[in-house]
Fold these 3 entries.
Entry 1:
Amino acid sequence: QVQLVESGGGLVQPGGSLRLSCAASGSIFRINKMGWYRQAPGKQRELVATVTSDGATNYADSVKGRFTISSDSAKNTVSLQMNSLKPEDTAVYYCNALALRFYWGQGTQVTVSS
């Protein structure tokens, strides 16, 4: 079992920045990949960014150049630095880990609005 606890999120104006963090605990030695997904009202959950255990990253086209995913193996955390935020980035952001199966955090709200 893997437990994921997210932090960060909140309300920010367009063009602003936020940083999300996710702390993993439990069977962390089984984690192959971690990432962030988001779900806006009335829309399906979508991939934002992922990072593998060997450091390979992948981003949705909509966030490339604005968001940066990073991991800290010593602290068992994965972070998402979000810059140049747009109203369309408003969503609930979920931390995700792949360790034999997918695990999800509880989600954290990000609202981009003036």
Entry 2:
Amino acid sequence: QVQLVESGGGLVQAGGSLRLSCVASGSIVSINSMGWFRQAPGKQRELVATIFNSGSTNYAGSVKGRFTISRDNAKNTVYLQMNSLKPEDTAVYYCNARRSVVYYWGQGTQVTVSF
């Protein structure tokens, strides 16, 4: 099992920044990738960003150039730096870890961007 705990969400004005953190614990040795998803009210959960064991990254088009995913292997932590936030970024953000075909999820952290 893998446990994921997110933090760093909150309320911010449009144009502002937030940094989300996700600490992984448990059986993390064989994790292939980690990432962030988000789900806005009434919408499906969508991929925001992924970071692979190779260090390569992948971003949704809507956040490319504004968000940056990174990791600190020594701390078993993945970060999502979010800049130039927009009201449409408002959502619950979930940390995700993948091991082969098994996905693990955190409890989510709310990000609200006001006009």
Entry 3:
Amino acid sequence: QVHLVESGGGLVQAGGSLRLSCAASGRTFSTYAMGWFRQAPGKEREFVAAITWSVGRQSYSDSVKGRFTISRDNAKNTVYLQMNSLKPEDTAVYYCATDIRRYRAGVTSTSAEYDNWGQGTQVTVSS
């Protein structure tokens, strides 16, 4: 079992930036890919970004590609999501999650392939 705690959300104007953090404990963090998802009111949870367990390969949804950057610091058991050029449509609760499969070759954007979720952090972008 792993415990995830997100932080860094808040209210920001369109065009601004935020950096989300997700601190993990309870599992060998460095051997699992990590993902970020988000859920806006009235909408389903959607994939945002993911990073492989061995730092190097990232994947992004088309809606955030070029604006968001996912990274991880295995020494700190933390994954980050740098969000730039924020838009009102980025408003959502953001969740980090751990891959269900250890040492996965690559990443997955399917939420069912993630088995531990944080409590979420609210990001609100005003126009």
